[in-house]
Design a protein that fits this description.
- This protein is α+β, with helices and mostly antiparallel strands.
- It has one domain: Ribosomal Protein S5, domain 2 (2-Layer Sandwich).
- Helix content is about 30%, strand content about 30%.
- The strands form two sheets. The chain has a five-stranded mixed beta sheet. Strands 7-6-8-9 form a four-stranded antiparallel beta sheet.
- Strand 8 and strand 9 form a beta hairpin.
- Helix 1 crosses helix 2.
- The radius of gyration is 18 Å and the shape is globular.
- About 45% of the residues are buried.
- Bound molecules: uridine-5'-diphosphate (UDP).
- Uridine-5'-diphosphate binds next to helix 2 and helix 3.
Length: about 240
């Protein structure tokens, strides 16, 4: 798709930033992964399934997922205040919503799976990068899943839809300004998470979803390759 709209970093409107992924980056975790999109880098570590403590929080019908997202203090040039804040709590919760629909947690009654996401470098799209890393880390931990999820933020800059916003684009001030739409999809194309910060019409929202499907397919290919590389390495006798 080529339009006359000029992006600051020269990308086409439907072009995502260069992505990289690696599995097994935290050796002491049960599963772990790194996902990098441009200058945004997320690390996810999974611990579990393990017995839920305190005991009164155990659910005998199914296991539970806990997600904790945080940005490291050096992830942006203005130092982030350490500790939980409202934004981190919101992103932790939506990360859980994005991942839970594909996890077969009914296999783990009374147990919990902990997912920790740390953002090492932030240039927008950190919730999506965190979800992408977490999906890989959960697969690496061997948690059974019906599908894998992939996530990308679609933006509307004035009237034009673009894939995978940078921070500079999130701060776009011309015309109608910016709209940020983080979307998480299963590989089958089911939406497990969608947020909307800004304004968009129904027709264009449908177009944003189509753009997300194409972008998430590219993310999926990179996630799949990173997981396959980790299996190949293990089969070759290396960790
Ligand atoms: N950001 C920041 N300080 C903060 C929170 C966010 O500099 O305390 C920057 C960071 O680059 C982040 C971007 O703002 O990626 C956009 O944040 P948003 O809340 O929209 O979430 P994201 O796009 O990272 O999922």
């Amino acid at each position: 798709m080529v339009t006359k709209f000029k992006r600051a970093d020269g990308r086409e409107v439907d072009e995502i930033r260069p992505i990289e992924a690696k599995v097994g980056v935290v050796p002491s975790a049960d599963g772990s992964a790194m996902f990098k999109s441009g200058n945004t880098i997320a690390i996810a570590a999974v611990y579990g399934p393990k017995k839920m403590h305190p005991q009164h929080q155990q659910n005998p019908a199914k296991g539970q997922l806990r997600c904790e997202y945080s940005m490291l203090s050096f992830s942006v040039s203005d130092r982030i205040k350490p500790g939980r804040n409202r934004r981190a709590m919101e992103i932790s919760e939506i990360t859980k919503w994005a991942l839970e629909p594909v996890l077969m947690l009914d296999k783990y009654p009374n147990q919990v799976v902990d997912v920790f996401i740390n953002i090492i470098q932030a240039d927008a799209g950190t919730r999506c990068a965190g979800i992408n890393a977490a999906a890989m880390a959960l697969a690496h931990a061997g948690i059974p899943m019906t599908d894998i999820v992939s996530s990308v933020a679609i933006g509307k800059l004035d009237k034009t839809l673009v894939a995978d916003l940078t921070k500079e684009e999130e701060d776009f001030e011309e015309g109608e300004g910016p709209t940020d739409i983080p979307i998480t999809l299963t590989h089958e194309g089911k939406v497990t998470h969608m947020q909307l910060d800004g304004k968009i019409g129904v027709k264009q929202l449908g177009e944003a979803l189509d753009l997300a499907k194409v972008a998430c397919e590219k993310v999926y290919e990179v996630q799949k390759k990173a997981l396959k590389d980790a299996i190949d390495m293990k089969n070759g006798g290396e960790k």
